[in-house]
């Protein structure tokens, strides 16, 4: 399972005591709005510290309506940002399940935490630095208890993609004894840190997500992520993805041939689907014809044309090219020339 942990500092609205410029404020607003897409994802679980709300309120870093609205007007940013949009995102993230609830944790006691690199922590107020380290320890504990989890951190003002943490837990108190651990417990882990939604999308594994998916909406999101990564590597705008859709038999055909759970097959399939959608490697594409004769008409469905793309020598992707983009119809073996209507 892909698990996302949110550092409360990500949500910290610049207080009146902070020496922040209008550019700093705009960066905060843009960053907050970039995370609103998290509300719609199906491929990950998200958690936040149970202390997050209290810290933001106590240190005057919660974006209260009146203060935020007045600041937007004062800086002229009210023409571009709405206070309600910002508050909705912050409140939505604060209402996530807590990390402590995920771990079924009552309390944890640990020694000094070593974080590397740590240069980005110096400008932070001490309470946010301490909470950041505590979250990393809890992430490390979660990785220890749930070995298959792929844990990612959402934070702010961190230029480093990878963060390592080392700490020794002296004791943990859980709500029950299902997590039997021996103490002291030395934990050392590396995590991917993301400061923007694009970082998150570029640092997750579509192949692993595809293996763990069950619903059509999840497979759709994951293929979009794969295409996003491909476009980014090609130097194109990854936010502009052409239209496409799955045909009604596509996932069933993938399941019957092992393309939902075998990693090598998944990688080949996602590459072939992405190439089809963004019109790459067209030398692997052939018209699907009514029969084997070279002069045979191409199979059609009203205005749609049937095409066949090589996944590898043994397997092929059949799809309809429609006015609304490709409709991925089925995955077939080499000698199968049928395409679901």
Walkthrough of the structure:
- With 341 residues, this protein is α/β, with parallel strands linked by helices.
- The chain has 2 domains: 2-200, no CATH class; 209-333, no CATH class.
- The chain has 11 helices and 13 strands.
- It has helices at residues 22-34, 52-58, 65-75, 83-94, 99-103, 126-145, 197-202, 206-212, 216-233, 250-256, 263-278, and strands spanning 2-6, 44-48, 105-110, 114-116, 150-154, 162-174, 185-194, 245-246, 285-287, 300-301, 304-310, 315-322, 325-333.
- The strands form 2 sheets. Strands 1, 2, 3, 4, 5, 6 and 7 form a 7-stranded mixed sheet that branches. Strands 8, 9, 10, 11, 12 and 13 form a 6-stranded mixed sheet that branches.
- Strand 11 (304-310) and strand 12 form a beta hairpin.
- The chain is globular and about 75 Å long.
Keyword list:
alpha/beta; 11 helices; 7-stranded mixed sheet; 36% helix; 341 residues; 13 strands; 6-stranded mixed sheet; 2 domains
Topology:
Blueprint: E1 2-6, H1 22-34, E2 44-48, H2 52-58, H3 65-75, H4 83-94, H5 99-103, E3 105-110, E4 114-116, H6 126-145, E5 150-154, E6 162-174, E7 185-194, H7 197-202, H8 206-212, H9 216-233, E8 245-246, H10 250-256, H11 263-278, E9 285-287, E10 300-301, E11 304-310, E12 315-322, E13 325-333
Parallel strand pairs: 1-2, 1-5, 5-7, 8-13
Antiparallel strand pairs: 3-6, 4-6, 6-7, 9-11, 10-11, 11-12, 12-13
Helix pairs in contact: 8-9, 8-11, 9-11
């Amino acid at each position: 399972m892909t698990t996302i942990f949110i550092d409360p500092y990500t949500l910290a609205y610049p207080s009146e005591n902070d020496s922040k410029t209008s550019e700093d404020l705009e960066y905060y607003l843009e960053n907050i709005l970039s995370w609103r897409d998290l509300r719609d994802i199906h491929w990950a679980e998200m958690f936040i510290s149970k202390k997050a709300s209290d810290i933001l309120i106590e240190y005057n870093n919660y974006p209260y309506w009146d203060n935020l609205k007045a600041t937007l007007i004062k800086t002229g940013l009210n023409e571009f940002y709405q206070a309600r949009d910002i508050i909705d995102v912050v409140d939505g993230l604060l209402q996530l399940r807590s990390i402590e609830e995920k771990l079924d944790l009552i309390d944890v006691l640990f020694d000094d935490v070593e974080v590397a690199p740590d240069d980005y922590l110096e400008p932070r107020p001490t309470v946010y630095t301490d909470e950041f380290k505590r979250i990393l320890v809890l992430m490390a504990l979660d990785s220890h208890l749930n070995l298959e989890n792929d844990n990612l951190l959402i934070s702010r003002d961190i230029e480093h993609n990878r963060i390592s943490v080392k700490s020794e837990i002296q004791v943990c108190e859980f709500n029950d004894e299902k997590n039997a651990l021996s103490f002291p417990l030395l934990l050392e882990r590396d995590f991917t840190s993301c400061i923007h939604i694009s970082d998150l999308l570029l640092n997750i594994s579509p192949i692993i997500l595809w293996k763990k998916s069950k619903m059509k909406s999840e497979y759709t999101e994951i293929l979009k992520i794969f295409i996003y990564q491909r476009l980014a590597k090609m130097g194109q705008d990854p936010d502009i993805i052409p239209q496409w859709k799955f045909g009604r038999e596509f996932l069933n055909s993938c399941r019957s041939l092992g393309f939902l759970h075998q990693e090598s097959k998944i990688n080949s399939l996602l590459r072939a689907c992405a190439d089809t959608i963004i019109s790459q490697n067209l030398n692997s594409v052939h018209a699907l014809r009514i029969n084997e004769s070279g002069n045979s008409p191409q199979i059609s469905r009203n205005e749609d044309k049937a095409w066949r793309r090589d996944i590898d020598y043994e397997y092929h992707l059949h799809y309809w090219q429609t006015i609304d983009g490709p409709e991925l119809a089925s995955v077939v073996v080499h000698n199968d020339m049928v395409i679901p209507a």
